[in-house]
Amino acid sequence: MASTEAPSSDLGNLVGGTVSDIEKLIGQHFDMLGNELKGELEKIGGAAASLGAGAGAATLGGVMGGLMLVHLLHDLTRLPLWVCYGLVGGALGAAGAGLLYGGAKTVADVDLVPRRTAETVREELSDAGRALGGRRA
Q1: Quick check: 1 pLDDT over 50?
Q2: DSSP 109
Q3: Sign of CA dihedral 27, 29, 33, 34
Q4: Are the C-beta atoms of 56 and 96 separated by less than 8 Å?
Q5: What are 62-74's pLDDT values in tens digits?
Q6: How far apart are CA 36 and CA 56, in angstroms?
Q7: C-alpha distance from residue 77 to each of 65, 81, 92, 94 (Å)
Q8: Which pTM does this prediction carry?
Q9: Within 1-137, where are the H helices?
Q10: CA 74 – CA 101 distance, rounded (Å)
Q11: How far apart, in whole angstroms, are the C-alpha atoms of residue 24 and residue 79?
């Protein structure tokens, strides 16, 4: 009777050890997943700062320097004042749009799904399933 229990006990220990290793591996992969997500979220923070700085610079430049440039252009060229406002406003708007485009492009490049880690976890789970399935058969 004791000789039939030993192989069962060894198999139980083997399966228990394998399950423990799989749990540890999955935990490590979730840690990697968290670190990758943290990195992507940091990119979003940088992009938000860029967007805010772009919008702020466009607004501040439009208000503070715009009036001065309009009147300087009017004095130098004797163009109608409304034309000077249009030229300066268009130039400042283009500069602000360029800054906003750069920030939006950075946000578009952020990938919140860490594909490498997800694929690795999927492969590890598949390998573990095959290993457990092969041991039981």
Answers
A1: no
A2: T
A3: positive
A4: no
A5: 688 788 989 999 9
A6: 30
A7: 18, 10, 19, 22
A8: 0.40
A9: 2-60, 66-77, 81-108, 115-136
A10: 31
A11: 75
CATH of 2-136, one of 2.20.25, 1.10.8, 1.10.510, 1.10.287: 1.10.287
Structure tokens at 124: 């590890």
What's the CA gap between 45 and 92, in Å, rounded?
25
b/e per residue, 52-69, with b = 16+ CB within 10 A?
eebeeebeebbeeebeeb
Angle between helices 2-60 and 115-136 (to 10 degrees): 170
Q: What's the first-to-final CA gap in the chain, in angstroms?
A: 23
131/25 Cα distance (integer angstroms) = 14
